[in-house]
Specification:
InterPro entries: NAD(P)-bd_dom_sf (IPR036291), PRISE-like_Rossmann-fold (IPR055222). 37% of the residues lie in helices and 10% in strands. It contains 16 helices and eleven strands. Helix 1 packs across helix 8 and helix 3 packs parallel to helix 5. The structure holds NADP nicotinamide-adenine-dinucleotide phosphate.
Amino acid sequence: MPDSPNHAIVYGASGLIGWALINQLLVPYPATNTFKKVTAVTNRPLDLSETYWPEPDSRRPELQLVSGVDLRGWNKTTLLERLRQRVENIEDVTHIYYLVFTAMDDDIEEVATNRRMLQNVIDVHNLISPKLQFVAFVGGTRGYGIYSPGGTFTPPLHEEMVKNLPPDYAKTVVYPSYREILDTSSAEKNWTWCEVCPDAIIGFTPNGSQFSLALHWAQYLSLYAYNNGIGPHTQGNSTNPIAKIPFPGSLAGATSLFSPVSSTRLAQFLIYASLHPKTCGSGQLFNIADQETPSTYGSLWPHLAKWFGLIGIAPSEPGPETEYNKLKVGEMPEEVSSLAPGEYIAKYRDVFAQWGCQKAVTGGVGAGNRQLDSVGYWLTFDRQLSLERLMGTGFEGGRGRDPVQGWVESFGLFRRAGLIL
Ligand SMILES: NC(=O)c1ccc[n+]([C@@H]2O[C@H](COP(=O)([O-])OP(=O)(O)OC[C@H]3O[C@@H](n4cnc5c(N)ncnc54)[C@H](OP(=O)(O)O)[C@@H]3O)[C@@H](O)[C@H]2O)c1
């Protein structure tokens, strides 16, 4: 078989989606010789030996890690020069996966900043990568209006609905701008593009992430178990082998329907879509989830707690009849009977240092801390995704996987990487 000419470049390779995507490209998914080369671009420095990506072997595509690429700080000229200097064979790039996101307090500024970063990346590749075939980016259910209290559309959420997003809300989300950029920039070019829409993404990152719910809850559960004498560091010293931990949210937060996805499955579909431009290109949007049957946080919680030796129980906070269901994105009720996960982690973080988990001290969830604390309180409405369009693509993973699997795989990796006890 002749060598594949495909060269994938992944912007945001250190993030929640980016890590999983590089991992799958190197596995190699879907088969040996799909990609010849993979370039992983990151902003923060990344130590390859701490990424847990597959080691080089005869089946693995060649990997180049290019760190210190600050898309926010660099203009187009700087980006062009630096990429030319630092990315080997940039002229051979065939597939771009764009997974960068910078969260900012001001939504309008956030849109402008993120928009400029993607525009620069695409303009540069249009100049220097004549073999480009496909661009894929990841949006999210924010693009279906879930940041409005109570949501915007009646679920299941279908891809066509994004066209009816109220204009005042649409201007606070960057995804419509990304679509505009890619539509305009791909006109009369040999490449096409698609967008993939997940709700909560469950996965591993070696050095934190802005919005990793799995990491946030794993650190909470890990410290809670330790403080109750349970877990690998308390062997023989168990003070409470049946510690109960309530779901951190309200009853409505625990029972509302949603569609989580593991970062592995999301990554596999991104690769699949990019290799099937006829079926998946032309600027189409695809929802993605682990399963067509929706989940609830309340049904997942006991499984997550169990991994840490705890008993996950129903929330101790009141239900939907309270004012909780009027909360906006990231808002917590004023009175909550116990510490929120982020507050609990902050209070006991020293325990991680005490047991040599340095990564857990420095590599938490960063900017998304408050929003992740509030997940169980403000997301009190159904927001499940329709997977009809995804299943029509022929993606082999269309059959789906158990949503608990992504959590426990991530927990195992967090422990291996010293991000939890
Ligand atoms: N997390 C979720 O559950 C979730 C759910 C639905 C949708 N999404 C969407 O998925 C996209 C990616 O989010 P994520 O969860 O993967 O976030 P993430 O884990 O925080 O990753 C963001 C990535 O962006 C990179 N980045 C940030 N600022 C940069 C800059 N100035 N220059 C270059 N790279 C920069 C980061 O690089 P460094 O780490 O190197 O700084 C990181 O790799 C976003 O559009 C988000 O809305 C996420």
